[in-house]
Specification:
The chain is an alpha/beta fold and 335 residues long. The protein folds into two domains: 8-221 and 311-334, TIM Barrel (Alpha-Beta Barrel), CATH 3.20.20.70; 227-303, no CATH class. It is 38% helix and 13% strand. The protein is built from twelve helices and eleven strands. It has helices at residues 8-16, 39-57, 73-82, 116-130, 152-156, 163-174, 192-200, 210-213, 222-230, 253-259, 285-293, 317-334; strands at 21-24, 62-65, 87-90, 108-113, 137-140, 146-147, 183-186, 205-207, 236-240, 246-250, 302-303. The strands form two sheets. It has a seven-stranded parallel beta sheet with strand order 1-2-3-4-5-7-8. Strands 6, 9, 10 and 11 form a four-stranded antiparallel beta sheet that branches. Helix 1 runs parallel beside helix 2 (39-57) and helix 2 packs parallel to helix 3. The chain is globular, with a radius of gyration of 19 Å. It starts with 7 loop residues before the first helix and ends with a helix. The model has no long low-confidence stretch (mean pLDDT 91).
Length: 335
């Protein structure tokens, strides 16, 4: 949901309807064609503006997702603290020093992990260096959208650990801690029945993204949303991203061109992701995702979760959450 897909519009609508609204901080500023000297400031200013707008639109809970792999990770964290967001969520790397940025505040901290081992490392480091533990943990499986914390081959060959097993293992682990920590399931959560399943497994909640793209309030261009509605199961594929990670996208003509070896030359003055090597990348992922958010799909691709093809309509956030509640009740009644 990064690069201008989940901003204040979607986050405030979700928060106003009783859930946690999340602003994705990566690539919020229109920096692609600006000199490197403006990269940090334009993104800081954009994040600050989105946080303030979201807070002006809702009294609900607003979180900000800050990816550890970002070259401006620390600067974005400082903006979150200055604007006193409710929650900071960090993934795409282990946020081992995250607590030091929020000392003296009441901001909640939630890391995203893909294994018990990763979470155990975080807990050990935080407890030793900051005498603090995470306020919750998101365990994300391989059915999530966008960049994924798994190997390309494991995903393509179906060798990744199922999210159900990951949740069970993490729930068991947190019970061994001095104080149990809420577990949040993510990656492939699509229906109310899915929510019920994970709650029964011991999770305290779920994180959802794919289905919320197809809402009126989602900040992406309408053509981005329509790509979900128009997609078929076979359109959802895994590609190798220029940043060295596999990514799940909806196949389109741009993807076919890249798969056929086409490159789009570019100059990178800012290096937004630590893992990206501009000298080897066949195209600029920042530029591509920026185009996608604006609906320029002939020069980009759409990140999506494994269930994107199941989206068949674009509705208000309030309607979607009502649908999820109805699905939860139907699942409980069936059981």
């Amino acid at each position: 949901m990064g690069v201008r897909i989940s901003r204040s519009g979607l986050a405030s609508a979700v928060a106003s309807n009783g859930c946690v609204g999340t602003i994705a901080s990566v690539g919020l500023g229109q920096y692609e064609d600006l000199p490197a000297s403006q990269f940090v400031k334009v993104n800081n200013d954009a994040l600050r503006a989105e946080i303030r707008k979201a807070k002006s639109l809702t009294k609900g809970i607003i979180a900000v997702n800050v990816m550890v792999v970002l070259s401006n990770y620390e600067e974005l964290l400082k903006v979150c603290v200055e604007e006193n967001v409710d929650i900071i969520i960090c993934g795409s790397g282990l946020p081992l020093d995250l607590p030091k940025y929020v000392q003296g505040t009441k901001i909640k901290l939630i890391p995203i992990v893909s294994s018990v081992r990763a979470f155990a490392i975080i807990c050990k480091k935080w407890k030793h260096h900051f005498n603090r533990m995470p306020d919750a943990v998101i365990i994300e499986g391989s059915k999530a959208g966008g960049h994924l914390g798994y190997s390309y081959n494991d995903i393509a060959e179906g060798k990744t650990t199922p999210i159900e097993q990951l949740v069970e293992e993490l729930v068991a682990y947190v019970k061994t801690l001095e104080k149990p920590i809420p577990v949040i399931a993510a990656g492939g959560v699509f229906t109310g029945a899915d929510i019920v399943k994970f709650l029964r497994m011991g999770a305290s909640g779920v994180q959802m993204a794919t289905r919320f793209v197809c809402t009126d309030e989602c900040d992406a261009h309408i053509d981005f949303k329509k790509a979900y509605v128009a997609s078929k199961k076979e359109d959802i594929i895994i590609i190798n991203s220029p940043v060295g990670l596999p990514g799940r996208v909806i196949k389109n003509e741009f993807v076919k061109r890249v798969q056929n070896g086409e490159t789009i030359p570019f100059k990178c003055p800012y290096r937004c992701l630590k893992t990206c090597n501009p000298n080897l990348a066949p195209y600029c992922i920042a530029k591509v995702l920026g185009n996608a958010s604006k609906g320029v799909l002939n020069e980009s691709f759409v990140f999506a979760g494994a269930n994107a093809y199941r989206c068949n309509e674009i509705v208000p956030v309030k309607t979607l959450i009502s649908q999820l509640k109805e699905e939860i009740l139907a699942s409980l009644e069936t059981a």
